[in-house]
Amino acid sequence: MTTLSRRAFATAAMASLLVGCDGNGDDGRRTTARPVTTSPSARPSAKPARALGRSVPVRLRIPAIGVDTPLMRLGLASDGSVQVPPVTANDRAGWYRHSPTPGQTGPSVILGHATVGAYGDGVFRHLARLRRGERIEARLENGTTALFSVGSVRTVAKADFPVDAVYGDVDRPELRLITCGGPRTGDGYRDNVIVFAALSSTSR
After folding, report:
1. What CATH number should be reported for the domain holding residue 173?
2. Which end of the chain is more exposed for a tag (fewer CB within 10 A), N or C?
3. The total number of structural domains that make up the chain
4. What percent of the chain clears pLDDT 90, i.e. is strictly above it?
């Protein structure tokens, strides 16, 4: 984990996932994060490659669902929650800059919208369609591409967001992709879609 403590990261991350990740506003719910522990049952099973050094991700490609997006950097909002990408016509995903970079040991976190208000579909609109073994490519600032293999895709109620499984420490390079999903509830969505993936190889 970089910059933030495990507990602070989990608390901030939980706040971000319960508010506005679909670009349509706050669903009004808050949950207190528990202390973080690793959840082996939620970890992807793909054989990981050797960990990489730190290099900021600049682009994300997911061929199976047609995602090819520049990555913006996300920090913390004034209320202490994790920022989400702005609602724009040209929607982009964002990497949370206090998490490891893709390929470093630990869970690297990338967030994206399912919908972007009046602009329609968001960059992660088809995230729930991903299947085990499908490829995710994170292009890094140093020219390396970190290749990840999907281990599992989970749709969970926001009220039951699995903080430990998503943000807990792990001993290998992993990736978490997160968006909203499930049925609409007022101005938001009831659930979150979470993709768990592990580093499988690298290329240049």
Report:
1. 2.40.260.10
2. C
3. 1
4. 56
